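I'd like us to work through together how a protein chain folds, taking it slowly. To get us started, please write out a protein record for me. Go ahead whenever you are ready, and we will take it from there:
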Amino acid sequence: MEKGGEQKLMNAALMRKYLNRPGRLFVKIFDTSSGGKQIQGMSTDKQRITVELDTPLDQPLQGWIEVVGMATSSNVFRAYEIICFEQNENQEPFDEESHNEICQIFDLLRDGDLYKFKN
């Protein structure tokens, strides 16, 4: 898996566009399975995602994570790195809607057509 180069910030809707290209995806964990080598979750645009790992998890995970790797299908993301966020009841909740807007803006900037962005 290519680990260098530009990493596309994406949500599940953009995974199809950037198949087999390095990217970053935020996922809210529902469950882990297959001996800790898969994470079942929801992307910021509320679509079910399976994250496949090369190495089994060595600790339980919960909440939102950022995964770095690449989309291998429209709902499977192969991760080589997981970034965990500290859970704190006093902090603001993760803003899924704003994250999706950022994904859309970045995608339009890559395509060179920011005028397509709709609020």
Q: What stands out?
A: The first strand starts at residue 8 and ends at 10. Confidence is low (pLDDT under 50) at residues 114-119. Residues 96-111 form the longest helix (16 residues). Strands lie at 8-10, 22-33, 38-43, 48-53, 64-71, 76-84.
